Structures are given as C-alpha cells and as structure tokens.
C-alpha cells in the first residue's frame, strides 16, 4: 500500500519500488536524521531512541547512510518484530549503498522495508539525495534531528518537515560543537521542539518523577550562578556534583537563555 502521508505531498512519486515487508509502510512512522559524522554519544542516543520508538509500534525512517542513519536503523532492528524500519534510498532498491552498510541493507529487507522512487539498477547520484530527504520527511509523522551543522544534508530534511507542517524535534548539543548549530538554532527559533529522549514521547509514572527531579536540579544550579562568572569546578563544589553531572544542566540553561558562558565561567542573564 502506498504510504498515506507521502501521498499527501505535492508531486509525490507516482510509483515506489519496494523490497522487504510492504506492511511496514502502513505503520506509524518517525523520521530520524543527523550528520554522517556524529559523535559516539550522538550515535548511541539516536540508536536508543530508535529502539524506544520501535518498541512502541513505530517504523523508524532514515536514509541508510553511514553514521546516524545506520545507528537509527540498527536501533530499531534491536526491537522484536518484522516491520521495524524503513530505508529510503537515493538509488534503486537493489543497490546497497554505501557498501559498508550492505549487511544492514539485508537486515532491513528481512525485518523492515527498503523503498526508492528510482528504477531498479539505478546508482545513487548526488542530485538524488535531496529528493530522498524530501521523501523521508514526507513518509514520517514527525522528524527527529540529531547533530547537524548548518550545511548538513539533514537540515534539508528538517526544512521539508516544516514545509509539510509536520512536527519537528531537535536534540541539543553543546554550542562549542559545530554539529550543534543546526538543532540548537531550530530550537532557539521556535521551529523545533526540544527532544531529550524517549521520555518526551513515552512517559511512565517513574519518569515523571525523574523529570520533576531534573527541573529541581536545574533550579538549584541556576541559584548558584549570578552576575559574577562562576567556573564549572566551583559549581561542582557548590552543588556537590561532578563536572559530567552538571554539563547537561548547564547546556539546557544556556539554551533556555538563562545563563551564558564567558572566558572565566558562567553568568546569569
């Protein structure tokens, strides 16, 4: 069956070539994209998030590229079932590309589906990738954007998602990392919803309590920051936590516009 959400897109492909379990195309779907050069933490985060969605009945949609795409597909395939993920290719459905993902390609065919608008035997030409990104956005109910610099191809997928008036989520990263520029900017502009993990989509009672505790922790940290710069080492002593424990809280406070980082430490805005 032709994907219902994709059919709503203007100038959608009249024909799709499909290889694998076609029933996957009728499931709820979530797109997951990011840079091919994601950090180890970014890859792990996306794989775990994809697994969460697959365990909750979603088909995870991505482009089978190296890096984050592969991590998303693999995370979805860790869940039980035979319709866990959708790979949208820039070449023909019989053309496993990149070759490093050939094993993943066959795993997706066995327990998901590979689709393309290109004829069988077509090689993935450079111009086809933007169009592929368009169909990833078109198939997905919502899109989650991971690490991406402003020139990343995944930013085009985010743009298509907004054009189609679908929900866009973005995972923030530290501002000093250029791979944070895309998601952080979209969050700051109010175009993307902040995504911090599966808890944002699948709330359980004990997770609600954890969210309340995280809010309390951020408030405690903010109380220790004033108009005079305070270094991370001093903050760890004030709140009795390690640097790694307060890092994520500091990033969130920066993104919320409540503090900013200077050469000598953090100050309240």
Task: Summarize the structure in words.
- With 269 residues, the protein is α/β, with parallel strands linked by helices.
- Helix 5 crosses helix 6.
- The protein is 41% helix and 14% strand.
- It has helices at residues 4-7, 40-55, 68-77, 102-111, 128-139, 154-163, 181-188, 205-223, 232-239, 243-255, and strands at 17-20, 28-33, 58-62, 85-88, 113-116, 142-145, 167-170, 193-194, 259-261, 266-268.
- It has 10 helices and 10 strands.
- Strands 1-5-4-3-2-6-7-8 form an 8-stranded mixed sheet, with helices on both faces. Strands 9-10 form a two-stranded antiparallel sheet.
Protein topology:
Layout: H1 4-7, E1 17-20, E2 28-33, H2 40-55, E3 58-62, H3 68-77, E4 85-88, H4 102-111, E5 113-116, H5 128-139, E6 142-145, H6 154-163, E7 167-170, H7 181-188, E8 193-194, H8 205-223, H9 232-239, H10 243-255, E9 259-261, E10 266-268
Parallel strand pairs: 2-3, 2-6, 3-4, 4-5, 6-7, 7-8
Antiparallel strand pairs: 1-5, 9-10
Global outline: elongated
Through-space gap between termini: 53 Å
Structural class: alpha/beta
Mean pLDDT: 91
Radius of gyration: 20 Å
| Helix fraction by DSSP (H/I, runs of at least 4) | 40-55%
Element-level helix/strand string:
HEEHEHEHEHEHEHEHHHEE
Number of strands: 10
CATH topology of the largest domain: Rossmann fold
CATH class of the largest domain: Alpha Beta
């Amino acid at each position: 069956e032709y994907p219902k959400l994709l059919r709503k897109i203007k100038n959608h492909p009249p024909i799709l070539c499909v290889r694998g379990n076609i029933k996957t195309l009728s499931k709820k779907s979530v797109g997951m994209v990011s840079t091919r050069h994601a950090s180890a933490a970014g890859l792990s985060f996306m794989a775990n998030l994809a697994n969460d969605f697959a365990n909750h009945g979603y088909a995870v949609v991505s482009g089978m590229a190296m890096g984050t795409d592969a991590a998303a597909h693999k995370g979805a395939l860790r869940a039980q079932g035979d319709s866990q993920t959708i790979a949208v290719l820039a070449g023909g459905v019989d053309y496993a590309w990149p070759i490093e993902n050939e094993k993943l390609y066959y795993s997706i065919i066995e327990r998901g589906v590979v689709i393309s608008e290109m004829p069988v035997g077509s090689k993935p030409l450079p111009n086809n990738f933007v169009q592929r990104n368009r169909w990833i956005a078109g198939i997905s109910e919502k899109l989650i954007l991971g690490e991406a610099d402003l020139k990343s191809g995944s930013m085009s997928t985010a743009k298509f998602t907004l054009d189609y008036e679908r929900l866009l989520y973005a995972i923030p990263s530290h501002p000093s990392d250029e791979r944070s520029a895309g998601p952080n900017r979209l969050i700051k502009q109010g175009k993307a919803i902040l995504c911090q993990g599966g808890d944002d989509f699948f709330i359980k009672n004990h997770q609600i309590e954890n969210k309340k505790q995280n809010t309390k922790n951020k408030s405690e940290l903010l109380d220790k920051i004033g108009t005079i710069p305070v270094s991370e080492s001093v903050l760890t002593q004030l709140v009795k936590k390690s640097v790694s424990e307060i890092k994520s809280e500091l990033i969130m406070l920066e993104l919320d516009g409540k503090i900013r980082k200077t050469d000598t430490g953090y100050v309240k805005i």
